[in-house]
Design goal:
This protein is mostly beta strands and 118 residues long. It has no helices and eleven strands.
Amino acid sequence: QVQLVESGGGLVQAGGSLRLSCVASGRFFSRYIMAWFRQVPGKEREFVGRITWSGGSTDYADSVKGRCTISRDNAKNTVYLQMNNLKPEDTAVYYCAADRTGPTYEFWGRGTQVTVSS
């Protein structure tokens, strides 16, 4: 069992930056693919990006490519989402997710709110 807790969300002006963190409890964190998703009320959850267990490979949604970077520190059981040049359309609840293989994810955090003002 893996429990995920996100933090780092908040209110930021357009063009600003935020770094979200997701701390995982449980064993074998380093064996999980970690991903970030986001959701706006009334809309489907949207994939933001993911990182492989080693951190050697990442991929991103086109909507955030070039503005977001996912990294992980397996020693700290933590995955990060660095978001730069934020836009109002990035406003959403951001969720961290984990799975051994993907593309579906078994474990989810409760989310952290990101609000970007124009």
